[in-house]
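Researcher: I'm comparing several assemblies side by side, and this is the next one on my list. It has 692 residues spread over two chains. Same procedure as the others: predict the full complex and return the structure.
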Amino acid sequence: MKRRRIDEVDRISALPESLLHHILSFLSLEDRIRTSMLSKRWKQVWHTYPNLEFSYTIFNDVNCRRLMLKYLERTMRKRHIDMISTLKFALRVDMGFLYHPKFETYISRCLCYAVASNVKEIKLELLFYLKLYTLPPVVFSAKSLVALELQGCKLECFRSDVELSSLRKMSLSRVDVNDQVLENLIAGCPLIEHLNINACDGLKNLELSSPGKLQIFKVYNEGSELGRVYINGVNVHTADILMLPESCEINITSCKNLKCLNLFTLSITDEWLRNVLSELPRLEYLDITRCTKLRSINISSQCLKNLVIWICRLAKLKIDTPNLCIFKYKGNTISFASNVLALSETLLQLYCGDDDSGWFMKMIELIAKFSQFAQDLDLQVNPDEAVIIPGELRKTLQPPLTSGKHLKHKLCHSYLRFPLRELLDSLLWISPHPETLSIAYQYSCWNKFTLKLSYKAPLVYEGGIPRCCKSHPLLCWKRCIKKVEMEHTVMTLHGQIIDVKSYSIDSVKDGNMVEKLFRIFGHRR
Amino acid sequence: MAIMYALKSSDNEIFEVEQKVIEQSETIKKMIEDGAATGEIPLQVSSKTLAKVLEWCKQRQHKTVENENDDNKGKRKKERDEDDDIKEWENKFSDELKADKDVLFDLLLASNYLDLPALLSFLCQLVADMVAGKMPEEIRRMFNIENDFTPEEEKAITAEHGWAFQP
């Protein structure tokens, strides 16, 4: 017998099956199938692989899609015969305008085999334009099922059909389902924790009156006839409510333990919001985005930690939230009042309208409100030039951010409309003595300047030397700057660093350091 | 003073290792908790492989400790640099394993036995990357896999899977 050299031994095939399955999990379907063609051992490894995930993306041709379904059906039948368990069954197939009853038969059989092998997760994403695929009843009695994700199919079931006793997560997207069927379905899922409903047009009244264990709820139903959303779940901690029809009545005030609430593109009113917030005292995270009917928001909460108000056309915002840590706002300048103590993260994206008279005054006034509690401020202004405070105003007004330590500024447009040195000068008027300042802009790649600044004492005007900003007691940055350490980073749009340049400018070595600093910026327009 | 443990390889070599480093291994952690590990901890892993395992564990340990010590200031840049360093280290580690597949498979088995999920996933990903996009014949050559199908069987298999490889 021929003796094999050590480097000729097939060690990979000798690995335990679980390890080979682990390796397969990192491969694409195509590569997985290819390994099954290596040898009998590998054929067996694929045969027992517990996650069957088939996606249409690699099947261009009509015939291919049919063959794929046929192959899938045969594979699952063989596994069924050998009593091999399936953990996950995922099928994503785009049939477009093709339709053949055979396709439905294949899919339904696969689902039967999956359920029979105690599947834990089913994910079905179907695109049939001509006829919706109706889910076979067997799926509703899959006691082992933990997660069910459906897209593009039709559900029909009676209350007695449903016995999803292990189901924790259900997601329905573009699924044909009516109020009664959904009610039957939910009633048969005693352990459901996570429910996601997206574009299910058949729903008119979405009522979850006692979803005992429900924790996370998301509804996104644009363009539907949904008239009412009512959730009464004592364990619901997260609710995302997005893009409901204008007339839809939303009632979530019974979710007393709600901690996280996202409201996106809804026609909610000031009164609705006031009422909801007064009923939800445990709310910690609130995001209100594009709810353009809101005018005046008044929030009073001891628990709120994170508040986002994004593009809402507000005129007034009053927050009595002493424990707030993160505040993000995008929109026009507003009348703002708060009793916040210390924000760890503050983002202001302010928008200046075409004929926004008194813009600079309003912006300065708003930013000044954050001076005491926002040590880190991220400021963005659209259009970019609206952050350049005119010289005459700098002479008469007080700089708004006198105690901020870190200022960040990102430009909105992909080209600079003014010299960078003008921007630097204006930002250092807005925040006269920050420890760090960063300016970022996008011009084919990302450019970011980070400046670490140190100053000569005193920072307050004591007479003698001439003052350029006569009205306020703080010395302007040009008079007291001592040292600047600057880093210029160039990154790709994906954040990969291309180049980093460092500069250090010192008042001892560099004489007129303001000029030198401006010269570095002067090259960039 | 860090608590040290002595690990004994299958070929009787002793490795002195800090508790924090070896506790990444669920198997060893359990042995310690059960009190089975007074004195030397005997392991069914060769000294060559164990040295490699410990090299990985120390690198991981190093990473977590540094992250804990970081304060917020300047963290981004530091993290970035660290990520680059780790990437570089991992690339070197991978290249060595790719060059010597025996060590790679010994390490795979050891990480499975010692219950080191991060290392196991890393190695499985590494093998998967070596296989991805290759034709069966190339894969067989790379790992000395013998094609034990009869010509008829092979023909049937190719026909059955043809749909998956349409252009």
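Model: For your comparison table: The longest strand of chain B covers residues 4-8.
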